[in-house]
Amino acid sequence: MGKLHLSKISNVELAKRNFLVHPPEPPMDILFSNPSDSIYVGRTKMLHVPFYWSYKPVANPHIAVVGITGSGKSYFIKTFLTRASFVWNTNALIIDWAGEYKDWVKQTGGKIISLGKGSYLNLLDLGGMKPYNRIKQVMRTLELLTDLGQYPEQKRLTELAIEKAYLKNKFKMDAVEQRDEIGKALMPPTLKDVVKLLEEQSKLGKYEFPAELENSIYRLKQFVKPGEDFFAQQSTVSLDEITTSGLIDLDLSGLPDEVTRALGALSILQFIKEKMRASGWAKEKGLRLIIVLDEAWKIAKEDNSDAVMIVREGRKYNFGLIVASQNPTDISETIFSNVGTTFILKVKFERYLDYLQGSLNFSNFMREEIGKFGVGEAAVNMAFHSAASYASTFLLDKIEGEEPLKELFLDLIEVLTEKQKRDINMPKSISFHKDDLRKKLREFGLGEERLEEVTKLFERKSRHLDVVFFVILLERYGIARNNIAAFLKDMNIDDSTIINIFTKADYRKEDLGDRDVTQVLLEED
Predict the structure, then answer these.
(1) Domain at 56-93+260-399: CATH code
(2) Residue 143 half-sphere exposure, CB side, CA atoms within 13 Å?
(3) pLDDT digits (tens, 9 = 90+) for 351-361
(4) pTM of the model
């Protein structure tokens, strides 16, 4: 019969004995509290527990999503919005920088509002605010997007001209309700009216600093040019409808540049923020509206942006904000420190992991796991209401959406060296989600017809394409080589392999001559 021996064991030794240590996951009552009142995301990697996200255990309903192109960000967002609509009857507004979501919104029966393509938003609409308050918002927006803040006199002239435009239209500067003598709602002025007032002042020739006045006019004229006056006409967008009409895609891709896109996005966020405040505190918990900002670095990076203000205030009004980016440093650290949940998908660069780990304070073990992620795998960081004795960051095996997450693959085997081919740790192909590929190629200027051709080629080839043929195809479509190289780098392909890809592409093109690469691919089926 054996003998029982007692011995002293250090905490370090105990920690190594896995049967005494709970894996880094929250308990089941947090992960799986009430499936009928939460959103299913996927199963945890350690114990394979179903994870249902809810706004109830976390500090607020706001979410940050980070991950490289092809990691599954947009797939997660679409899944989340769909399920939130079913579970909580939540409305959703996607502020769509690149027009990435509009096809999906159409398919799901949502509504598309296209600024720059027939829809207008008057920058001087009040949206339930007093004119004085709206002027402050407009001036803060212009300072954020231009260098106006560096010129105090131009700022003063612009602010006074906007105030005069309201007064000329008989607005009371400190009133919310704006009606004329017979009770009819007043028509707000536009930026065209503001420019006109400044030009009239210039014609008088009595202003002490004419150069400052001329520069003020020049700055505003960029927003009132014919064909580019998207924010200088009376609004065709109903501010009430965009927050209460189910799924809405505010498509900004028709606007000419980053400044005008940011202007449209910030203005909408400002109107929504005021609508939140006007609606008052919610008596019952829930989510009335989810706002999505995807790759909106221009307005997610600055601490004085309205995106940050909504993150700080949204919970008490039952509004949620989802901020997504492939570059975590494009999201303000203030947002990371205030959102209730962060979903981390595949992240490429060490400096991005440094930023995330510094902001969210997860372990080196988590960092190593994140560095090995494939498509759809994720780490979740949750800021709970009260101090928790369990892990706040845990791993998901894969995000499980409404449809299977369809990966596309670029095969690298032909461009690898013999040593790389023998290396079991060297990936022989790279993968990404179909929607992410379409988004990136759309950014490079590829039209919808070409996008369909690329997608169908992947489908015909069992979702695998040789990377060399893929590069030749994109070049035939007119995409610059530097853009293709940037895309391959985003896919975590090293520089030497990219050089090899382009070298083989040049040789292959000589063999192809005038033959269409798509025809060659089809012949290989």
Answers:
(1) 3.40.50.300
(2) 18
(3) 999 999 888 88
(4) 0.75
